[in-house]
Amino acid sequence: MKNTNSNAITVQATTNAPAEKVWTYWNAPEHITKWCQASADWHAPYAENDLRPDGKFKTTMAAKDGSFSFDFEGVYTEVEPYKLISYTMADGRMVTVEFDEKDNTTTVTETFDPENTNPIEMQRGGWQAILDNFKQYAEEN
Fold first, then answer.
1. pTM for the full model?
2. What's the confidence (pLDDT) of residue 7?
3. Is 66 helix (H, G, I), strand (E, B) or coil?
4. Going by C-beta distance under 8 Å and a sequence separation of 6 or more, which residues neighbour residue 9?
5. What is the C-alpha separation between 15 and 10, in angstroms, rounded?
6. Would residue 133 count as lying in a domain?
7. Range of 101's domain?
8. Out of 32, 33, 46, 122, which residue is the most buried by the measure of CB atoms under 10 Å away?
């Protein structure tokens, strides 16, 4: 189900790769651990992913200096291969990820409910940075 929250935040990147590759790199734990960080001083040392409705995912995001880490996790509500993923995060917020392939490029659009702690622009910037890391990883590998 597509996120229709009027307060939702959207980030987007177009990757020079076909949807099949983008889908695999987005969802396979061995790839997630290579791109899922917002800055060079963070990394994702662990990822698991059961990509199906009611399946769970978890990615550990951690500062490389060991000072802080957290698990980004949730449950899938909808999975349409190469097209759409919807999930609910552990804190109840909804996320929709759309994949749109045209001419051997794939646009990934993430729409997510904001949390109430950090400013909207900080949240948008963090999610966009992770998406930009994904784009770079998918194009270079």
1. 0.92
2. 87
3. coil
4. 111, 112, 113, 114, 120, 123, 124, 127
5. 16
6. yes
7. 9-140
8. 32
Helices (H) and strands (E) in the chain, counts: 3, 7
- According to DSSP, the residues that pair with 89 across neighbouring strands are 74
Nearest partner of 43 among 54, 34, 52, judged by Cα: 34
DSSP structure string for 73-90? EEEEEEEETTTEEEEEET
Mean pLDDT of 86-110: 97
Give the per-residue pLDDT at 82. Answer: 97
Domain contains 132: yes
Collapsed DSSP state (helix, strand, coil) of residue 55 = coil
User: Is the model's pLDDT at 5 over the cut of 70?
Assistant: no
Chain centroid to CA 52: 16
pLDDT in tens, 32-81: 999 999 999 999 999 999 999 999 999 999 999 999 999 999 999 999 99
Number of domains in the chain: 1
Q: Which two tokens stand for residue 40?
A: 């060079």
Question: What is the domain-level CATH number for residue 91?
Answer: 3.30.530.20
**15: β partners:** 106
